[in-house]
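Batch 3, record 17
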Amino acid sequence: MSEITIEQLQAMLDGSPFICLLRMRVVSLDREKLQVVVEMPLAPEFERHPGTQQFHGGAIASLIDVAGDFAVVLQVGAGVPTINLRVDYLRPAIGRIIATATVRRAGRTIGVVDIDVTDEENRLVAIGRGSYGTTAG
Amino acid sequence: MSEITIEQLQAMLDGSPFICLLRMRVVSLDREKLQVVVEMPLAPEFERHPGTQQFHGGAIASLIDVAGDFAVVLQVGAGVPTINLRVDYLRPAIGRIIATATVRRAGRTIGVVDIDVTDEENRLVAIGRGSYGTTAG
Amino acid sequence: MSEITIEQLQAMLDGSPFICLLRMRVVSLDREKLQVVVEMPLAPEFERHPGTQQFHGGAIASLIDVAGDFAVVLQVGAGVPTINLRVDYLRPAIGRIIATATVRRAGRTIGVVDIDVTDEENRLVAIGRGSYGTTAG
Amino acid sequence: MSEITIEQLQAMLDGSPFICLLRMRVVSLDREKLQVVVEMPLAPEFERHPGTQQFHGGAIASLIDVAGDFAVVLQVGAGVPTINLRVDYLRPAIGRIIATATVRRAGRTIGVVDIDVTDEENRLVAIGRGSYGTTAG
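Prediction for the assembled complex:
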């Protein structure tokens, strides 16, 4: 369970139609830190407005939700439900974005995760925090 | 500016590639209450897992963000940036979902909006609260 | 358990040294709606700055936490832990404040509560939303 | 303005009756990182229940609000209003608690701050995130 690989994690992402729609890819994982890195390319259909090269906030929130979720998956070994999600938008993103999700507290019933989102120029564009159920699995 | 119509609001939604991708439609608006109702159909590509008929949480968060945003548009008369967003997931949704966004405070620089999401059986499936900038426009 | 009275609720508040320090009083409760109303007087030591007649935001957050907590107590019949809390400050409060807490979702493990805070002039000064554990008790 | 000292920051805290009531002390500040550390002793009147040695959540939320606020003061040079505040409670705290507030984004109109709270045994007991207005001052 704690031996989950990037390939297995990616297969879990690919099993979700909505995550496929947003073309998210697992970049790396760290089982010790309970940390997962997920990226999302900038496709024209993810833009806020045509030609701006800026993601819609909903796409960014989705990436944050998924990255946070899979950080808890590292702990629990199976998909977990999101209880709640908080997103602060800090700057417009340039190009593809990367979310780094780190479990802050892996509790018996709830896991709390921080998710930092950076863009191609490595600027912090959004930060998220989510609570996930950990009894599933 | 305060005379914005459903058609104009829908045209603003249709001008956003990401909102088009999620096929959101304005159902109604109330200029007095600063309230907007937006719906999203359940398409296979929005599902959490294939065949579950359940939206992925990121799609629900996106609907909440958009509905909240356009409630503030009623006040401001133009698109506004999301500052931050909180989403609480209460129950799995059955079928298409509807978000009712109501401005709680229309301030000079910030608007705060509550968004209730119900499903086909009119059950409350998620609630959102967002802060939006109001100086744009 | 569902027959809890105002006097019993007030006794629970009075059993908490911090709640006593802030002199909170239960105004009313509604067991059907899972709704509790709690007030807090404006004492000089609760002010943000001397003589402003304005509460410090921490005092307002405390009132919101307590009111939300006791709305869930109506459901559970015993004290419950706060999982997380969001507070939006909308306007400076004039004089004593009143929090109306309403359970939005009473789940098996988590309750989600909305808390509206109004001042003496019945203006909405802050809104809160909290998640509370419901397995205790 | 950027040359604010611990003594000046403490004097600002002492100018607030509510902060005095909770006996908060500035431990350190870092002007480069826009980081402030504030501690709060465990007094009997701050307890959730008598003799538990556990802070009420409202006191913890208040410490988080104040620490976040004064991290932004380092940037702005004057007191700033809290726009909203999010608190996740992770574990019961043992003894006095310390909040480390770090500005994540110092914007023209809004500053976003992360606040970590640890107890005497250096365990992470709560995490906060706040938005503050930065146009004041």
